[in-house]
Amino acid sequence: MGVVREGSMSTIVKARDQETGRVVAVKVHKPEARKAVEKLESQYRDFTEGQITAAFDHPNVVKCYDHGKLGDVPYLVLEYLEGVTLGSLMAGDSQRLEGQRLSFVRQAAAALEHVHSRRFVHHDFCPKNLFVTNENQVKLIDFGLATPLLDRPTAGTRMGTIETLAPEVLRREPCDYRVDVFAWGVVAYQVLSGHWPFESPEHHQTLNKILNVHAVSLERRVPDLPDEVANLVMRAIHKAPAKRLSSMTTAVGVLDRSKDVAM
After folding, report:
1. Number of folded domains in the chain?
2. Residues 96 and 222 in one domain
3. Which of 79, 102, 121 is the last residue of a domain?
């Protein structure tokens, strides 16, 4: 029924499930990416992307109906979503964000809270992996870099989207779920203020800012934002993991208290 999304690692096509009749999205890894996927799975996790995605059951996380291999090619059968990514909204259709900013940020937090409760780390939480449906429901997608959440930080490896990488990832230090917390904070800051907290025209400058420069207070960027929310986001992007927001459950609670605020 047509290609929905083409990436460097995979292709997603629209299809119809012959047994149920429902429209689905089928994600197939490209042959040239197979070795990279197998290396990731053998080095950093004991689960396939399909097994990880199928572990979730939450309205803000994409559903996985089936997964497996055709020959030696991995595939996932996912719910078909109509809409655009949050990244596309922020880049072009900013009007649609009006009145929905806090809702989108809260839904994204709820998605991460669920992922962490199932003992996984997403590792690539960013606007292109947050899908906004035509009904303004946010869905976290693409668990291609996700790993199990262990009881202690594991040796760092640099992966993910540059703008949302946590300092400990850049330093190749031991990492845990707080890399996702940092990424959520970066996305929340941008959605609420219209500015990336560590934005620079060059990638190396962005990396330097993430490591060494403190973001402008969100309270200064958005004076009308509830103080509790502004402080929450700033805690999420703290450079030191030990001083960072400790859980996404806290974030969801704070945002629930501000759900009636129009932003």
Report:
1. 2
2. yes
3. 79
Cβ atoms of 164 and 90 closer than 8 Å: no
The CA-atom distances, in angstroms, between 61 and each of 119, 131, 145, 231 are 15, 9, 15, 26
- Residue 34: exposed, middle, or buried by beta-carbon count in 10 A (0-12, 13-18, 19+)? middle
Write down the pLDDT at residue 151.
63
Instruction: Select from 79, 104, 124 the last residue of a domain.
Output: 79
Q: Tokens 């790993």 identify what position?
A: 147
**Rounded (5°) CA angle 68-114-196:** 100
Same domain, 102 and 176: yes
CB contact burial 66-98 (16+ within 10 A = b; e otherwise): ebeeeeeebbbbbebbebbbbbebbeeeeeebe
CA distance 23 to 65: 11
Q: What gap in Å lies between CA 63 and CA 221, rounded to an integer?
A: 36
Ranges in the chain, pLDDT < 50: none
| pLDDT at 228 (0 to 100) | 97
Residue 89 shares a structural domain with residue 45: no
Specify whether 196 is located in the same domain as 98.
Answer: yes
Q: Both 193 and 115 in a single domain?
A: yes
For 51, the token pair is 């097994």
Q: Give the bridge partners for 3, in sequence order.
A: 13
What is the per-residue pLDDT for 26? 96
Is there a single domain that holds both residue 110 and residue 240? yes
Question: For 196-199, which contacts have Cβ atoms below 8 Å and span 24 or more sequence positions?
Answer: 196/163, 197/237, 198/163, 199/163
